[in-house]
Design brief:
Layout (H helix, E strand, L loop, with lengths): L12 E6 L5 E6 L3 E8 L4 E8 H10 L1 H10 L5
Antiparallel strand pairs: 1-2, 3-4
């Protein structure tokens, strides 16, 4: 599963792991991606999305119909 939110588009970020002696090695910060299934009344079916926690909060605030309409506008597949 890709570490990318389908609603917000947030993906992995990169930085440095800094040890006690201050040596630096590359590391990756992955977002908290959850697989959620929603019933979408406008489509008349269930839709499974890969969402970050902020994406879940966005759906709670705006509603699944509004979010799915925006995703369809920008050509997202699900």
């Amino acid at each position: 599963m890709a570490a990318r939110c389908q609603v917000t588009g947030v993906g992995p970020q990169f930085g440095n792991q800094i040890s006690h002696s201050h040596r630096r090695t590359k590391r990756r910060f992955d977002p908290n991606i959850q697989k959620k299934t929603y019933w979408v009344p406008s489509l008349g079916r269930k839709v499974t999305l890969n969402l970050s926690v902020k994406g879940i909060k966005t759906i709670d605030a705006r509603g699944i119909d509004a979010v799915v309409a925006d995703m369809l506008k920008r050509g997202e597949k699900f």
